[in-house]
């Protein structure tokens, strides 16, 4: 194994020259434990590393802190610390998959750094939503990564349905590559593999249930590498367990998969939902009362627009359900998180003995 297998290239190398003269070593971050990180070195060794003070203080925002996928400079020392090494610098990201943090904050949240290809998984049927795809494309465009769409579950739809969906996507974004796949019939993993070679990092995004795990499991083959990666168990709850998020794939290349990436869809959907009603917010600005419920309130601009026929009653009914829809998304998100922690727990169990002894978990 060499640094290049981990995605190292001439540009990183050039930037690292200064660090090299200080005796620091390059490593790629494979896990974010919040207080510490997992880092992999060129010889394949993995270390538990701490964030250096300078890197922390120089970061103007959270987005500038090291994230999974980042290349960092490690000072490896035996200063009796609890960690194997300290991060002294973070190299400039060549791509950066990020989203705006949820809630009021407009701060950027980095989901993964230095991802080369992002696969958006969807299907020709129920999940197909061009508005959502627009949002994905906006995120991906900003990231700098190459974007590829997989219309998965092709076995469930006719050739024509798959082709129509493909044409719509190509219309929406002529720069995107679209493939029709079926994880069920093992016609999908070959498409993923065609993009993978040593040093290439990929990520899969898309709604819950579109087949991301199925494709990932096929890429990983028999040995599912989340096992035995568990570390940093704090307290009893498994929710605090963090798994390795950057995984080396058996056939070469790497995959970054973490809850943030998986949740980007929820966030995208919430945003799409809200945006599709932005005209309502616009009209509602003319309501007499700023806390107008748009019912029988006096001076309601929405009701006036409904009467005038410039707003459709159906859309208004949907608008009223917006909060309900957003709540549904939040519930789905919760369910997802439970699924992830259950999955980690299950995988921990299979290799559990050693770890339960070490970290005192059951
Ligand atoms: N018919 C058909 N079913 C599929 C295909 N790919 C996945 N599935 C099924 O769809 C279901 C959901 O697949 P997952 O791989 O768990 O979906 P996911 O995107 O990982 O979902 P989350 O983990 O919630 O994000 C499973 O029952 C799969 O067997 C496919 O190509 N065709
Ligand atoms: Zn009103």
From TrEMBL:
Annotated ranges, domain EngC GTPase: 113-262
Major place of residence: cytoplasm
Keyword RNA-binding in record: yes
Location of the CP-type G domain: 104-264
Cofactor binding, per record: Binds 1 zinc ion per subunit.
A GO biological-process term: ribosomal small subunit biogenesis
Keywords from the named record: Cytoplasm, GTP-binding, Hydrolase, Metal-binding, Nucleotide-binding, Ribosome biogenesis, RNA-binding, rRNA-binding, Zinc
Location in the cell: Cytoplasm
Protein name (record): Small ribosomal subunit biogenesis GTPase RsgA
Organism: Rubellicoccus peritrichatus
Gene transcribed to yield this protein: rsgA
